[in-house]
Amino acid sequence: MRLRRCTACGAYTLSETHCSVGSANPHPPRYSAEDKYASYRRKARHGG
Ligand SMILES: [Zn+2]
User: Fold this and answer.
1) 47 to each of 35, 40, 41, 43, 44, how far by Cα in Å?
2) Over the stretch 12-44, which tens digit does the pLDDT of each residue have?
């Protein structure tokens, strides 16, 4: 069951529309910020 949340009143609903406005997913997907750290290379230095 996928609950949606009304963007107007904030009520959870199963309908795609509520209060004459579109309901949205209460859990928006996170934008992948791992790519920023993916380019981060860890250099292992052999001291000595
Ligand atoms: Zn509503």
Assistant:
1) 29, 21, 18, 12, 9
2) 888 888 888 777 776 666 666 666 655 556 666
In a domain? residue 45: no
Can you give the residue range of the structural domain that contains 1? 1-26
CA of 32 to the centre of ligand 1 (A): 30
Q: Is the pTM of this model over 0.70?
A: no
**Number of structural domains found in the chain:** 1
Residue 42 lies in a domain: no
Residues with CB under 5 A from ligand 1 (ion): 6, 8-9, 11, 18-19
* CA 21 to ligand 1 center in whole angstroms: 7
